[in-house]
Every structure is written in structure tokens, then in C-alpha cells.
Design goal:
278 residues, Rossmann fold, 14% strand, alpha/beta, six-stranded mixed β-sheet, 38% helix
Length: 278
């Protein structure tokens, strides 16, 4: 099984080789910016230990999702089973920058996030099988998994975005130096409640990063057929700044997420679009 940490390009393969050597590797991910200046230092240093840790996390998520896929095809998993195969760099890159009191909430491709937030592979598979030993006691299934400071796993398209704004509001209300990552897909980006959450977050300067996982298809509908503007990091117009990064590159996700996290805590909401593919 081939699972890239950065990407499959020759330059990225060379970066992985260097990063896993004894010497740290310095890379400069490409970030597209909207109404913001971006990080002061655009480069990121990849130490051997942290790089191997990210690769291990990505491979663990991939193997877990492949096992779930096999169980679903054997009809051991009933109901829905939404996999995140191919998008492993997203949860790994975000997890790398989360602070002690930061929170995260996502849509229904949530297995990898639950794993990195503290649930075990055994608990996640048990949940998919509807067993009481599952992370949600077998009552949530694929779409409803929860862990420490991880608020799901939500089955209603786009509904997690205003909930994420509510979590960020509580952080601001309690004067915490913390923020929330609220993830949604390119399909959910066209939901009205997403724009309502943008508006409230901008009004109240909530510490939230709206993360759009753009995997090019909302279920089976391509972005060209569903969105008049497919640059999702610009979707809030002049209301919110935005950043776009390579969602297939764990280092790029990590760098962009770190910048957006600091912006959210210091200046309020920002959109982060991660270009990925499953």
C-alpha cells in the first residue's frame, strides 16, 4: 500500500526522504491567500520524529478505513459507512496544531478524527458494528462518533458548522485562549446555515476556523455543477479572510492550520480550504 505524507510528486518524495533522515527538512508549502497576509515565515521544519508520527497516523487511518470497507462489503456494517480514504492528511495536519483546549467538529467522514482525538481502532470498529463497546456505545454508527473535545461526526449536511460556531462562542464567552475547527465539505458549502454561521462568527469575532474539505465531489456531484464560485476560501467575500492549501500534503495542512488557528484566536474567524480527493 502506498500512502504519501506530502504528495506523490518527485519533489515531495524527495522531501519525505529528507524529512525521515537524521537532518530536519525545511519545506515551503504553497498557500493561496484572500484578505490576509499569511504566515510571517512561510516555511515549515519537518523533524524526523514528528514526520514519522504523521505518516504513522495516516497509515493507521488508511488501514482502519480499509478494514471498515471490507466489513461493509461483507454486510457486517449496516446502514451508512462514510470513509475518508485519501483524505488522511486533513485530520493529521489539523491534529498537529491543536491546543490543549481547542475543539474540533466535522461532518460524517469522521473515523480518522475520532481516532486522533483519543478513540481506539477497536472502539471505532465496534461502533461501526453497532456494539456496546463502541465509541458511542453502538448507537451512533459511522456518522456519530465523539471523543475528548471532538463534537462529532454529524449526519445532517452542513449542520455541524453553526454548532461549531456555538462551541467557539462558548470559548470566547469563557475568555479561553482556544479556538474551534469546524469542518464541512464542498457540497455542504452551499448550505444556507453555513453562510449564517459565517455572518454570526464575523459579527461576534468568534475564534473559529471554517475548514472546507474540497474533495471535488459532493457525493456524486462535481463542484463545477454545484457551485458558481468553486474557490471556497473566498466564499465569504469581503466578510472573512481565507487560505487555501494542499489537503493531500500533511505538512501543508499543518502550516496552513497553524496560521489559521493563530488568526482565529487573535483576530476572529477565517476560512481554510483544503484541496483533497478521496
Amino acid at each position: 500500500m502506498r500512502l504519501r505524507l506530502l504528495s506523490t510528486s518527485a519533489a515531495a518524495k524527495n522531501s519525505v526522504k529528507k524529512a525521515t533522515s537524521s537532518q530536519p527538512n525545511i519545506v515551503k508549502p504553497k498557500l493561496d491567500l484572500h484578505l490576509c497576509k499569511g504566515p510571517t515565515d512561510p516555511s515549515i521544519t519537518l523533524e524526523k520524529e514528528s514526520t514519522l508520527n504523521m505518516l504513522t497516523q495516516m497509515m493507521t487511518i488508511r488501514r482502519m478505513e480499509m478494514a471498515a470497507d471490507a466489513l461493509y462489503k461483507q454486510r457486517q456494517i449496516r446502514g451508512f459507512c462514510h470513509l475518508g480514504i485519501g483524505q488522511e492528511a486533513v485530520p493529521v495536519g489539523l491534529e498537529a496544531v491543536l491546543g490543549e483546549e481547542d475543539c474540533i467538529i466535522t461532518a460524517y467522514r469522521c473515523h480518522g478524527f475520532a481516532l486522533l482525538r483519543g478513540a481506539s481502532v477497536r472502539q471505532i470498529i465496534a461502533e461501526l458494528l453497532g456494539k456496546a463497546t463502541g465509541v458511542s456505545r453502538g448507537k451512533g454508527g459511522s456518522m456519530h462518533m465523539f471523543a475528548d473535545r471532538f463534537y462529532g461526526g454529524n449526519g445532517i449536511v452542513g449542520a455541524q458548522v453553526p454548532v461549531g460556531a456555538g462551541i467557539a462562542f462558548s470559548q470566547r464567552y469563557q475568555n479561553k485562549k482556544a479556538m474551534t475547527f469546524a469542518l464541512y465539505g464542498d457540497g455542504a458549502a452551499n448550505q444556507g446555515q453555513v453562510f449564517e454561521a459565517f455572518n454570526m462568527a464575523a459579527l461576534w469575532k468568534l475564534p473559529i476556523v471554517f475548514v472546507c474539505e474540497n474533495n471535488l465531489y459532493g457525493m456524486g456531484t462535481s463542484v463545477e455543477r454545484s457551485s458558481a464560485i468553486s474557490e471556497y476560501y473566498k466564499r465569504a467575500g469581503d466578510m472573512l479572510p481565507g487560505v487555501r492549501a494542499d489537503g493531500m500534503d500533511a505538512a501543508s495542512v499543518r502550516k496552513a492550520a497553524d496560521y489559521c488557528r493563530q488568526h482565529a484566536i487573535g483576530n476572529g474567524p477565517i476560512i481554510l480550504e483544503l484541496s483533497t480527493y478521496r
